[in-house]
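Lay summary. Proteins are chains of building blocks that fold into shapes, and those shapes determine what they do. In this project we predict the shape from the chain. Here is one chain we studied, written as its sequence of building blocks.
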Amino acid sequence: MAEWVRLAIVGCGGMGRRHLAGLAELARSDHNNVDLVAVCDLNERNAEDMADEAHQLLGRRPAAFDDVARMVRETEGLEAADCTTDTASHHRVAAELLDLGLHTLCEKPLALTVRGCDRVIGAAERSGKTLSVAENYRRDPINRLVRALLDDGAIGERQFIMETGVRGRDTLFITPWRHQKLSGQLTLDAGVHSADILQYFFGDAASAFGQTRLYEKTRVRRETAGPGGFYEKWAADLPPTVEATGEDALFGLITFTNGALGQWVDHYAGHGEAFHHRMIFGTRGSIAAPADRTGRPVRLTLDDGTQLADQRLLEHTPSYRLDPVAASLFGGERPWTYDFPFAETDRKLVALEQHELAACVRAGTWPEVDGAVGRRDVALVYALFESQLAGRPVTIAEVEAGTVDAYQREIDAHLGLVPRAVTT
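And here is the predicted shape, written in a compact code that computers can read:
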């Protein structure tokens, strides 16, 4: 236990509770390397409640705080933090944690804007501490399998990827802030998952051309327990309707650095039949990938007429191996399917992020999704917004450099990252 990394969870709402469940999953495994010693939230009641829940799940109660600086002063040997606050505060809270000397795992997206990402990355560089971004979809064993199939040339050279999701109607998505431009609209907060998967499979995006829309200007509270039911305790406090200001749909064409193309639709105001479709085409075949965190099998189709959606997939990817921790949690080194309830899958993936952070702290190694990767994912999302305003394709480099930022400037001004425009 002396080698375990002493960790705090900062942000004790629904996402914080999901990360606590991840720690409990890791603690039940043979690979635990984390000791939760503190929790912190501006809402003292939330912090105390999470400390109580941690006691039930982990067998010991972490100290509860409502101030990060005091938590660091008063928690002996604290080494790392898991930042699970709302998206609009990441640029402040994650940067503060790093500046206070804590290795930090920050929930996705890394920040609300590219400049916010720069603020966090700058803090990591100043402190010399590890910065990891909790991008969990790529850690799904089925997505690891898809990546291995691509890398092993199962369908030849990468040509084209289609990422399409249509769902949502006018339903409130977990919390009101996810429908506001200035605090973390759906197209960023959820869409960044797609941005990461696209680049995980096809490499860095070079440019994007797109449009965005706000279709449902009034969101209605219906089922608000959220993924795994972790947000249930706050559901009764939500208003019956929320007026939305943030776009709820994006449509884009992506050019990757390797010359491959992508078509991306994330539509969170779709009515009628919900639809998810992820198709990957190469020079010798195609891969149909299932929805994330479902464990459903991949379908591989080759030009010679072969079509596989079972264990024979593994014959086409000799390199596919999960790392020992993932293999332990998901039942083997080379799973081609799995069958767990959503909440269990969710906490297993979070546990992998947490284990990796602690391993990096001890070994001085680099996390898979570092600040640069997290910023690139955010930049790809905003490239579609900036493209619409610019009326042309924009490069990811332009967005990351801040030379194309017309859409983000209002958000940056609201966050205090750039001066507010002077009106006359």
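What the prediction tells us: The chain has a mean pLDDT of 96.
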